Amino acid sequence: EVQNYQILDVALLQLEIPGCMKILSDPDIWIGDSAATSHMTPHECSVMNVKPPTLADDVHVGNGHITQARCIGDIKEKMYTKRGELQQSNIALQYVVIFSRSKYNLISLSVLMKNKWILGGNDEAIWVMKGSTKIVFDIKIETKRGALYCMNFKR
């Protein structure tokens, strides 16, 4: 019986989050975005220290429109690899802009870099490091001309 559980454990470790566009609608999947000037999400779940936005929190989106933030807050959760293995616990994203017109969760790589995180990557993943903390965006979603690199930030 113990052997059967071990086989099941090994099989579960071989499962991974699929790298397809549909996965982006999951509130736990975050895109590493070098063009985003703020961390952004349409989901208010797990947001702490919520405060009203100011005019400076409005977001300029890719089509040139300005979108008003619904609120601002912090999110502190655990990050997992695409295979479901714990990557980091108690990671805090501060000053996350919540606005309903967004469809996806974005982690601003430029904000992290401004806060002394070091960006790295290869053709399979991108990551940011600060001291001994490393956040890996290992969910690769191929597009026609490139790829999106995402991570699982469990709420």
Explain this structure.
The structure is a single chain. The chain has 2 helices and 13 strands, in the order H-E-E-E-E-E-E-E-E-H-E-E-E-E-E. The protein has 155 residues and is mostly beta strands. 12% of the residues lie in helices and 45% in strands. Mean pLDDT is 86; it is low at 1-14. Strands 1, 2, 3, 6, 7, 8, 12 and 13 form an 8-stranded mixed beta sheet that branches. Strands 9-10-11 form a 3-stranded antiparallel beta sheet. It has a two-stranded antiparallel ribbon with strand order 4-5.
Question: Using DSSP, what is the number of strands?
Answer: 13
Q: So how many helices?
A: 2
Shape designation: globular
Spans of at least 5 consecutive residues whose pLDDT stays below 50 are 1-14
Order of helices and strands: HEEEEEEEEHEEEEE
Q: Give the overall average pLDDT.
A: 86
Sheet with the most strands, sense and barrel status: 8 strands, mixed
Keywords:
155 residues, three-stranded antiparallel β-sheet, 2 helices, globular, mainly beta, eight-stranded mixed β-sheet, disordered N terminus
Compile the SSE list and pairings.
Layout: H1 2-13, E1 29-33, E2 39-41, E3 47-51, E4 59-60, E5 66-67, E6 71-80, E7 86-98, E8 105-108, H2 109-114, E9 118-121, E10 126-130, E11 133-137, E12 139-142, E13 147-154
Parallel strand pairs: 1-8, 2-7
Antiparallel strand pairs: 1-13, 3-6, 4-5, 6-7, 6-13, 9-10, 10-11, 12-13
Briefly characterize the structure:
The chain is mostly beta strands and 155 residues long. 12% of the residues lie in helices and 45% in strands.
